[in-house]
Amino acid sequence: MGQFNYGGQAVIEGVMMRGANEWAVVVRAPSDEIIVKRQPLTEAVYRRPFFKLPFVRGLSMLWDSLGLGMRALMYSADVAMQDEDGTQEASLSGPLAWGTVALSLALGIGLFFLLPTFLISLLDRAISSTFLSVLAEGLVRLGIFIGYLALIGLMPDIRRVFAYHGAEHKTINAYEHGAPLTPESVAAFPRAHTRCGTGFLLIVLIIFVLLSLVIGRPAFWLRLLSRLVLIPIVAGISYEALKLSARYYDRSALVRALVAPNLALQRLTTREPDAAMLEVSIRALQEILQSEGLEQPPAATA
Question: What is the pTM of this model?
Answer without folding.
Answer: 0.89
